[in-house]
Amino acid sequence: MASDATVSKLPSPLRDLVAAATPHDEDYGMSDKDKAEVSEWISRVAQGNIVEPSAVEELNATLTRKTYLVNNDLTAADVAVYGALHPTLSQLQPAQYYSLPAVTRYFDHIQSRPTVRKAADAHSPAFSLIMFDLDNMPKLERKPDPPKKKEKASKVASGAPAVAVTESTPKQTKASSSDAIVAANEGAPKKEKKEKKESKEKAAAPDGRTVKNAGGKNVHAAEESATASPSMIDLRVGHVVDIKKHPDADGLYVEQIDIGEETGPRTVVSGLVHYIPIEKMRDKYLVVVCNLKPANMRGVKSFAMVFCASSKDGKEAGIELIQPPPGSKPGERVYFEGEKYESATPVSQLNPKKKIFETIQPGFTTLETREAAWIDPETKSVHKIRTANGVCLAPTLVGASLS
Prior knowledge:
The protein is of the alpha+beta class and 403 residues long. It has 11 helices and 19 strands. Helix content is 25%, strand content 18%.
């Protein structure tokens, strides 16, 4: 395994825990970028400074809007960080771990994953299960950062030298760990750059639809929203017309998926080899996430993602393809029920830096009826995922996580 060198830097028994809980190549990242991030996190753990107070505070901020450290699934980085934090969190009283809400929630989630629990129990009591009183944890309130202010330079008389424009950011009082962890301030883009970006996005829109704002400019509807919304995600019906194993990765399939585009099927790389037999993938109709940024996976560029349900007991307990209604056609729109979402247009491409999919993903699940849905974390309203002909389903899984 290419990641052996990185894991070997970890002290025992943490090294053994990571190796046992994440035995597959894809557990160390699917893309080259993911692999680099996983390696970086493990190196930080090996250096021993990740449990320092300032590092834990930073980790709490990082995890406020994330379920996992890298991408949307458990990796060796999560297991390494969990193991490193265990001695510290095992000593904390409720008032202390309440002051680290994101870290506590994350730690409890990782320690409950089946493969992690199995590996941890094998090394007990070093990584024994820690019980948290989460029911009485204060509700986390997220407040936006105050916007940065710009001091515009005054225009000087003709012939005089121009005054440089400077930016000044007011000093922020450092929040304690019990305060809400705020999202990074994105700042307002300059008008010229914004209009150029909007023009570009309009040309790249999947269906060409735009709306006009009060100023009369053509703007892609979903991209006007400042808040992450499930309708920003472009879900479509796909048909697997060809599939083979990745030539350089035992855990990856390379599929050709027809999503009704004139340019032909898209190449999609999926880490499903260990979970879904290839014969159950061939000629399959499924749901595809079409507006993620293309990613290079072991030398093969992937232009979409297969939408799957993972068992609530972890992917090792089962992964299933989300199935569109019978009679669905490639390229059919898949959307979220509800007046707010049904007519909204997805963004042309999700910006990885804005973590739109990562923010929405924790709300994806399958209901008691096995129907795929998104549950709004604020209102708890249920929005089923469907086409015009019916709701999308998981074959057997209830309470599954979707990604």
